[in-house]
Amino acid sequence: FFEVSMAARRRAKIRASLPTDPPAQLVAAFAGLDALPDPEVLCAEERAAAMTAVATALNQIHAYLTDLAGAADAQGDSRVLRAGTTSTLVATTTGSTPAVGAGIVHTAQQLRDLPEVADAYRKGQISGMHVRAILDHSPHISGFAARQDAVVALAAATDPREVGRILQVIADNDTDNPHPTLSYAAQRDRRSA
């Protein structure tokens, strides 16, 4: 009835050929999800605390997925499993698009150079959106690796948009960076000067 593209059929064929038995530790870790309390019976305080706990767990799970993608990329899993590229492997195993798969792999590659950011992500202290804001700006700030602890503390204390805004200001004012990225406001100011 529906016409599915050739690329989508190929990914579905790859997905069908992949192993489906996860490590026992993962099965055990997720075994209790069906026993989570009904949000309707929790009081406001319990729901707020539960949202915080679930958000931290989701950050840790997203970080683990990113680590899995990074290890799969580094060890050539896509060739072993005949899945094409690592991005295609990630896309097919997660049910996402190849662009999302590529983004996860790229994030894993970038985090190899920022161990403190990666560690905070694994601990659930910062979200994937924080990581994206940090990775978008880190190449444009000289000496960024030495500033990771301060950036992680900032990210843990505020939302991703604010982290991006502050890092953009730092990048705009970084006179040691030969390839600055300028915000639209800074670009406009330079053109009018």
Layout of helices and strands, plus pairs?
Layout: H1 6-17, H2 24-30, H3 44-74, H4 77-80, H5 86-94, H6 98-111, H7 115-122, H8 128-137, H9 148-157, H10 160-172, H11 184-192
Helix pairs in contact: 1-5, 3-6, 5-6, 7-9, 8-10
Architecture overview:
The chain is built from eleven helices and no strands. With 193 residues, it is mainly alpha-helical. Helix 3 packs across helix 6 (98-111), helix 5 (86-94) packs across helix 6 and helix 7 (115-122) runs parallel beside helix 9. The protein is globular and about 60 Å long. The protein starts with 5 loop residues before the first helix and ends with a helix.
Could you give a short description of this structure?
Helix content is about 65%, strand content about 0%.
